[in-house]
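Data card: per-record layout.
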Amino acid sequence: MSDPRDFTAAELAERYRDGSLSPVEATRAALERIERLNPVLNAFCLVDAESALAAAAESEARWRRGEPLGPLDGVPVSVKDVILARGWPTLRGSKTVDPKGPWNDDAPAVARLREAGAVLLGKTATPEFGWKGVTDSPLTGITRNPWNPAKTPGGSSGGAAAAVASGMGALALGTDGGGSIRIPSAFTGVFGIKPTHGRVPFWPPSPTGTVAHMGPIARSVADAARMLSVLALPDARDWAAAPRERRDWLATLEDGVRGLRVAYSADLGYARVDPEIARIARAAVRTFERLGAIVEERDPGFDDPHELFTRHWFPGAAWTVRSVPAAKRRLMDKGLLAVAKLGGRYTAVDFVDAAVRRAALGARMGEFHERHDLLVTPTMPIAAFDAGREVPPKRQSKRWTDWTPFTFPFNLTRQPAASIPCGRTAAGLPVALQIVGARHADALVLRAARAFEREHPIALPDVARLGK
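The structure for this 468-residue chain is written out next.
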């Protein structure tokens, strides 16, 4: 593999160090692929080639002096368009946001990326205000899957995952309020992790409160760990952030899973899973046994928390819609308006009741992880379906939350959860495992994902056929 667009961040840094490739060359290559593929995939909603090349030139000078700012210096990265980035409009997939701004602030994660010398390419597409598990919006249209452009990449970080999977940047910054990193990572065959809540400082705060997380999407587990080492640095603007900690998330990455207690749940006790997905996921879990983990089939023992999640998510949508002037609401996604209407019906007592039940769910998972180091499930119960739809056909789903049963429970519990590819369907679409750890056990989740990746390296789609 000699195309810099397909290199991991670690491989780029190695070549910058030995002088066989420069950040400017890598950035030009990424921009060329964006120019060719973005008309097909619609992953980016903003590309700033001029500022990216200027940042790459500064990085190149640092590498030549032997003074890089860190392992992400000169690495092309994209930013999901619900995250503030100074000088760029953050339109959130909505026609209701004024692009004139002003846009004077970086979100904490974006500020850390700049400080680390990362080359910011532009903004990736999101559904309006990140409200659903697929990526299309009134503003930017439909984002597509690089494995099959007729299919959705998932969402709401679908533009981010499609960009990474197709070589339009080595890394992407995404958000996850109910699966929005893990859903598209699963559908596009890349690695993504939702860290423990508060691990990556989040500002401005999400209207969905403490179910919202921010994290990396990458082509390798090691790349995600490198990125997390940058993203997890402190920022005073996040009042709910974890304690200040400088940590190298690569330090224990190669320690393997021997002796770890792994619970495998094929359906969490209630989910309906496509038989082909179930078969592929079950076979993949045996990898952990071969590597020395103690694996047993065990459900965590909670009832379907779908209604509990909607009591947190839908009122956030109601708040978002309420903040939009009434005259502009006709421009909004009708699905978002419908969800907001439902969310507006919940009372304050309903919300407090949901908070109390959420705490009980978190306590149950805390007790579960006293007996099991990790919980493994399929990430998604289905493969990617047709783009432009909120719900798959023939599944009797009303809303995106109906077909994402494995992801949103762990937003409620604030636990770290990652998605790693584990195979492909007969139609050639990616399938993934979800690895869940106890709160603050991010390093253990990454370590288990890396052990699995060593046995099953992440494969990228053949994008040569696209954009012709």
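Known properties of this structure: Residues 348-371 form the longest helix (24 residues). The longest strand covers residues 417-424.

See the next section for split statistics.
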